[in-house]
Amino acid sequence: xxxxxxxxxxxxxxxxxxxxxxxxxxxxxxxxxxxxxxxxxxxxxxxxxxxxxxxxxxxxxxxxxxxxxxxxxxxxxxxxxxxxxxxxxxxxxxxxxxxxxxxxxxxxxxxxxxxxxxxxxxxxxxxxxxxxxxxxxxxxxxxxxxxxxxxxxxxxxxxxxxxxxxxxxxxxxxxxxxxxxxxxxxxxxxxxxxxxxxxxxxxxxxxxxxxxxxxxxxxxxxxxxxxxxxxxxxxxxxxxxxxxxxxxxxxxxxxxxxxxxxxxxxxxxxxxxxxxxxxxxxxxxxxxxxxxxxxxxxxxxxxxxxxxxxxxxxxxxxxxxxxxxxxxxxxxxxxxxxxxxxxxxxxxxxxxxxxxxxxxxxxxxxxxxxxxxxxxxxxxxxxxxxxxxxxxxxxxxxxxxxxxxxxxxxxxxxxxxxxxxxxxxxxxxxxxxxxxxxxxxxxxxxxxxxxxxxxxxxxxxxxxxxxxxxxxxxxxxxxxxxxxxxxxxxxxxxxxxxxxxxxxxxxxxxxxxxxxxxxxxxxxxxxxxxxxxxxxxxxxxxxxxxxxxxxxxxxxxxxxxxxxxxxxxxxxxxxxxxxxxxxxxxxxxxxxxxxxxxxxxxxxxxxxxxxxxxxxxxxxxxxxxxxxxxxxxxxxxxxxxxxxxxxxxxxxxxxxxxxxxxxxxxxxxxxxxxxxxxxxxxxxxxxxxxxxxxxxxxxxxxxxxxx
Length: 707
What we know:
Blueprint: H1 3-9, H2 25-45, H3 55-146, H4 148-160, H5 164-182, H6 196-212, H7 214-220, H8 222-236, H9 249-266, H10 277-299, H11 309-330, H12 336-349, H13 376-409, H14 427-442, H15 447-460, H16 484-513, H17 519-523, H18 526-539, H19 549-569, H20 579-603, H21 613-623, H22 630-640, H23 646-656, H24 661-669
Helix pairs in contact: 4-5, 4-6, 5-6, 6-8, 6-9, 7-8, 7-10, 8-9, 9-11, 10-11, 10-12, 12-13, 13-15, 14-15, 16-18, 16-19, 18-20, 20-21, 21-22, 22-24
C-alpha cells in the first residue's frame, strides 16, 4: 500500500487543530537528572588542566551522540503517532459497526414482541390440538374402555371362584389399558379405572388367604396354592409407569404363610385346666413333626426354592411356640405336675429324636441355634415353683399320714408286727419310697432340680424316726454332712418320744419311791421289789421294738429309775442312828444296785450304759468308818460324777448321821480342791437332774452356792 492510499485511510485532522504533547512532570524530572549527571561527568573529566586540550574532541563526540539520540527519538515518536492514528481510525469503524448492530437488535426485539403476541393468540389453538389428540386416543380406545366395567366384574368373579391366575391376567390387561391412556392424557385418571385399586387389593387378599392355609391346600388343592404363589412372584417382577404404591405381594404371601401356621397351632389363647398341660404338650409332640413333614413333602414343591419352606416352617413353629410358652408363664401360677411336664418337655423332648431332632427331618428344620423355648430365668422360675408346691404337698401328705398312724396305734387292738415279732409300721418305708421316687423322677429333668428336691426331701425327713433306709436318699458323691440336720431332727424326735413313754413309767414309780429310804427299806428288799415288778411289766412291750430304739428306751427307763432312787435319797427322810444302820444302808445300796443291774440285763440293756453303778459309789460314802477320810471319798465321787454338787454331798452326809460341822466343811472343801473334772463327750447327767431341799446354812461352805 502506497503512502497516498494510506493517507486516505487515515483520519485527517481538522484545520487549526493541534496535538500538543501532554505535559509530563516525569519528563522535567528526567531532564534535571540528566543535566546533573552530565555536569558531574564533565566536572570529573575536566578537573585536570591537561585534559582541557581534548575538549573539542569531547564536544564533537557529544554532538554526534546527541544527533543520533534525537534521530532515534523522532523515529519512535513518528511510529507512535502512526499507531495512534490507526487506532483512532479503527475505533471510528467499530463505533459505526456498534451503531448498526444496535439498530439491528432493536429491529429483532420488535419482531420478537410481535411473535410473542402471535403465540398468545395461538395458545387456544394448541389446547384444541391437545384435546383433539386426547379425543383421538379415546376414540381409538373407546371400545376397550367401554368393556372395562364388565372386565372388572369378571375379574371379581374369577377372584371369588379362586381362579387366581386368570384373575391376575385380567387385572394386568386392565392395568395395561390404564397405562396406555395415562400418558396420552397427561396423567389424567379416568373414572372408569377407579375400581382397579380395590380390585387389586381383593386379589392380594385372596393370595394372602390361600397362603394362610398353605398346609391344608397342599393336601387338598395344591393347584390353588401354586396359583397364589405364582401370582405373588410374577407381580414382584412387574414394573409400571403409573405412580402407584408397590403392592409387595411376595412379602405379604410369606407373612401370610407364617401367620397361618401360627394361627393353626397357637392361635387360640392357652387356657388349660390344672394338670392338662401334659396332654397339650403331647399333642404338640405329634403335631409339629407331622407339620414339618407335610411342609417338606407337599408345601415345598408348590413354592419357589428361595422360599426355603421347611426352614420357614421350623422357625415359625419355634417362635410361635416360644411366644405361647412365655404367655403361659406370665399367666396364672402352674401346678407342680404342669411345671414338671413343661420342664421335661422343653429340655428333653422338644429337641430330642422324637421331635425337632428327628433324623427324618432335613438340616433345614434345625432350630438348635435359635433362642431356647425357655430362658434360664424361666427354668429357675419353674424349678422353684415345682419344688415349693411339691414341698407343700409332701408336708400335707405326711401330716395326714401321721394322723392316720396315730389313729392306728391308738386302737384297742395290738399294733401290727413283722415276721420277727417286732412292732411294725409301713409308714417310714412308704415315705422314703415316695421321696426317693420324686428325687429319681426329677433326675429326668435336670441336675439342678434334682438337687432342689433332694434338699426338700432331707428337710421333710426331720419329722420321722431314724432308719437305715435314709442312706438311699443320699446321692452319689454327696457329703455325709448333708444328713446331719436330718439326724439331729430324728434324734430330737426320739428323745421326745422317750420322754412321753417314760412319763407313764414315772407316774407308776413315784408313789413307790415315797417310802424310800426308810427303816423298812433298811431291813427288807420289798420296796425295790415292787419297783422292779412295775418296771418289768412296763418294759415288756419294748421287746416289740427294734434296735437301736429299744436300747434307747431301756437306757432311759433305767436312768429314770436311778434318778428317782437318788431323788428319794436326797429328801432327808432317813438319818442313820449308828454304825449298824450305816452298814445296813450301804448293804442295801449294794443289793439294790445289783438287783437293778440284773433287772435291766434281763430286759436286754447293755451293762456299759447302765446308771445303777452310781449306787455303789454312794455305798462307799456310807460305808466309810472314819469320817476324817470323807474328803477323799467325796473327791473320788466328784471325779466319777462331775455334776455332783455341795447340796448333794450335804444330803448324803446327813444320811450318815455322824458327821460334825467341821468334818462336813472339810469334806465339802474337797469338792473345790484340785483340778475340776471336765465333762466327757459320752457323760450322761445324773445329779444335775436330782433336786435337793435347801440345806441349813450351818452346813454350807462360805463360798458355796447355798451360802
